[in-house]
TrEMBL record:
Pfam families: TNP-like_RNaseH_C. This is Transposable element P transposase-like RNase H C-terminal domain-containing protein. It comes from the Eukaryota. InterPro entries: TNP-like_RNaseH_C.
Length: 137
């Protein structure tokens, strides 16, 4: 078992990069944090290790950088007609599942009633009788 993977160093590296992103904001608010997170995620800025960090280098890397996708030329490929799969329309038509939640509703209502009887009404017999009447007055 690689116990090195169960430490906080990758997390410490991540938050160190968030704090040092942009203008060295050591206490970012939620909007600053979200912006820095998106920027680091897109630009793969989270890859380098902080030189003065008191943690092991995080050796995780992305498979491809954003530059790879921006610089790669995309060729328009035409799919030959013999590679197209035709699906029978009978397979695509199906019945909607029945939504039968009567048991769930009964369970939740019973739980709420039990909690109401024990915690709210407690010892008031008039309140209990009024709540448990079958017919409304």
């Amino acid at each position: 078992m690689l116990t090195k993977n169960f430490n906080q160093d990758p997390l410490e590296n991540f938050f160190g990069n968030i704090r040092s992103y942009g203008s060295r904001n050591i206490a970012p608010n939620t909007m600053d944090f979200e912006g820095a997170f998106k920027a680091l995620l897109i630009s793969n800025y989270n890859d380098p290790h902080s030189k003065n960090a008191n943690c092991a280098e995080d050796l995780n890397v992305c498979l491809q950088t954003l530059d790879f996708y921006l610089e790669e030329k995309v060729n328009d490929t035409v799919v030959p007609e013999d590679n197209v799969i035709h699906i029978n329309s009978d397979i695509l038509s199906f019945d909607e599942p029945q939504n039968n939640d009567a048991g769930q509703s009964n369970y939740v209502c019973g739980w709420v009633l039990k909690k109401t009887l024990t915690n709210v009404i407690k010892g008031c017999q008039i309140c209990k009788k009024t709540l448990l009447e079958k017919e409304l007055n």
